[in-house]
Amino acid sequence: MALVEFLAVNDLERLNRRILACRACEAAGYIERAAPVVAGRAGNRMMLIGQAPGITELEIRRPFAGKAGKELFRWLASVDITEADFREQVYMTAITKCYPGRVAGGSGDRRPSGREIALCRPFLEAQLALIRPRAMLLVGGLAIDRYFPKRSLTEIIGNRFEIDGVATIPLPHPSGASRWLNGAANRQLLTEALRHVRAEWERCVPKEHDAVARVQALG
Prior knowledge:
This protein has a single domain, classed as Uracil-DNA Glycosylase, subunit E. About 50% of the residues lie in helices and about 10% in strands. The protein is built from ten helices and five strands; from the N terminus they run H-H-E-H-H-H-E-H-E-H-H-E-E-H-H. A hairpin with a 2-residue loop joins strand 4 (about 160-165) and strand 5.
């Protein structure tokens, strides 16, 4: 392993330990229980940025482990990306790293406050600096708002953007709480977005780690 790669691995491992040890939002009274979630390794060239972990992720401590994750991986399967390959090859994080809790007096998960987002921002900035992704997937409104504030999903889903040289693909949140995908035109936009994901996957992921490429090689 080259020295630069060795340093990158060590730096990322230190950062991940700091994230997992963070209790800032719990100490500030924003959440009941701090249980940060992050997954990935140095060398990943794709990065997924989600909104915040859900209740299942709180218990399992794994990104997209619940119902929304099943839907996300169903989408990815439609462009021949397996869950196992995706989890191995993509650094998965979120705007905030802990489950924010339920909406007070209602159903669904609470949207993290601006203060919570600010507390987590240095971690996300550090992750971006260390991973240096070639491609980013922005999943859900909170992640999309970081890069495309006040833009509607209809404007941006289905497009591939370049942000500071990084291919950036917005995706709607796969939660069943969103009705955006009820419209046929919006589902077509998702199909276009997933085609962009597949193209970036082929650019970023070594062929020996791609299930489709492995099958083609055997054929």
